[in-house]
Write a structure and sequence with these properties.
The protein has 149 residues and is mainly α. The chain has 6 helices and no strands. The protein folds into 2 domains: 1-74, no CATH class; 76-148, Four Helix Bundle (Hemerythrin (Met), subunit A). It has helices at 2-31, 35-45, 58-73, 76-97, 103-124, 132-148. This is Peroxin-19. It holds the Pfam family Pex19.
């Protein structure tokens, strides 16, 4: 939602500012880099916090990088083996421990299991001939489910 996106953007900008300040302190001491040189490095990476010459923000340039990183982290190769194993073992765990779990924990764990299965189903539906649009749509669904989890 818009509030979460705005909070994420603010948090990300604050983190980048802190990284930039720390990098300037560390790198500046060793190599005597000026503030302009450090800003140029950040700009070349496409993640500067200042307004760019073309009028876009550094945050806008960072989004493709973050999206690519998230796609890699949420890829079938990385996520599917662990989630499918968990989804397979979760029902057994819940059945064996249902008496020792609080009603709230049982409800939360059951929901997590359902969400894991949903992600696994998305990965199972993946086909080698899927178009980029289909892959992007699937990634958005997986990202949404992972956020719910």
């Amino acid at each position: 939602n818009a509030t979460s996106d705005e909070e994420f953007q603010n948090s990300l900008q604050e983190t980048l500012k802190t990284i930039s300040e720390k990098a300037q302190t560390v790198v500046g001491q060793d190599n005597n880099l000026s503030e302009e040189e450090l800003a140029k490095i950040w700009s070349n990476l496409g993640i500067g916090g200042e307004e760019e010459a073309d009028g876009g923000s550094g945050f806008a340039n960072l989004m493709p990088l973050m999206t690519n990183m998230m796609q890699n982290l949420l890829s079938k190769e990385l996520l599917y083996p662990a989630l499918s194993e968990l989804a397979e073992k979760y029902p057994v765990y819940l059945n064996e421990n249902k008496d020792s779990l609080s009603a709230e924990d049982l409800k939360r764990y059951t929901k997590q299991m359902e969400l894991m299965k949903e992600v696994c189903n998305e990965f199972d539906a993946e086909l080698p001939e899927d178009t980029e649009a289909v892959k992007k749509e699937r990634f958005q669904r997986i990202l949404s489910v992972m956020q719910s989890m």
